[in-house]
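Final report, Chapter 2: Outcomes

The project's central promise was a pipeline that accepts a single protein chain and returns its three-dimensional structure in a standardized token representation, suitable for archiving and comparison. That pipeline is now operational. To close this chapter, we reproduce one record exactly as it appears in the project archive, with the input sequence first and the structure output second.
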Amino acid sequence: MIELLFLLLPVAAGYGWIMGKNNAKNQAHQLNRQITSEYSKGLKFLLDREEDQGLEHLINLLEVAADSVEHYSTLATMFRRRGELDRAIKIHELLLKHPSLNEQQAAASRLELAEDYIMAGLLDGAEEHLVWLVKANHSDALEPILNLYSQTREWEKGINMFEAHSDLFSKPQHFKAIANFYCEAALLSNDPQIMRKAISLNHKAIRPLYELGKSAFAKEDYVKAIYYWRELICSFTFFAPLFIDDLAHSYEQLNLTHQFHELLLQLLDKGGVLIKIKHCQALLEQGHTEQAIKFLTDSLKRQPTIRGFSFLLQLLAKQNNDIKDVLDQIDKLVTSYIATKPDFQCQHCGFTSHTIYWVCPSCKHWETIVPSRGLDGF
């Protein structure tokens, strides 16, 4: 009898373990059913615009399961895309109050909440959360807060943030933004010294060199104008249309036109049609008309452009009096066509304009709008 009891003991233990395990499974299933039920109810209430009841169910569900954060984030994102910002804000605020969020989840929720606030026009609230994130070394907050300071034109705040947390700035777009913040602050205070700080950044930007050259040119300091603009045209040749005529004038005022012609020769390979046209004009000044026509004709065969064709028509009209009127009429048509085309285009989003913008009005990226290229470009 005792032997039988010893034999049954392992069986009883195994049975107890199995039943306990099944009971745990049953409790887990019951909990999952509870979560699913509450989640479904909350979702239905929200979709039916019964917001208060929906959020109450969400609160209950958050108390039951902290691992549903991604579901709420997805739901809030859906509301934000639909323009229902009040709902997105309430969900993200609810998530931030949950005690079991880990650091990464809390930071992501705070960033999303700041985006909600920005879209809702609650800029002070957005700034508060973004500043908190930057101070906590979350680099993902840099772009939205720089966009925010750009929108509110608070250049000094952006500069102060950069100088306090420069180690977080790593992307070229971040440095472009800060370089332009320095430029804007310098123009407001009429202090070029502030603008020179932008030149010392790790990433070379376009606008500081352009503005410093422009300022020197306005003061008839042609030596400085050449210094800044020569560096700019060598580094960013495609920006030549903004200042190349004034650069040529600066060389002329110093009786250094030959140096400008030498510079054009250096830029021919990487420059667009405008550089080639300026080279042709230099050849014309030296009396090499036939050479200019041949050079431009060969260039257009390799890379046709409307602006180059227009200048070639002008050259041919001067050489052929018999057909000058016909060529002039054709050139007028071509010039009219060019006038309808945008002079500038954003390399990031494709926005086009007849005016240069240092920050794209569409995608808010700095220094992505450049002079147009290709068949209709420079």
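Archive annotation: The radius of gyration is 33 Å.
This record, like all others produced under the grant, will remain available to the consortium after the project formally closes.
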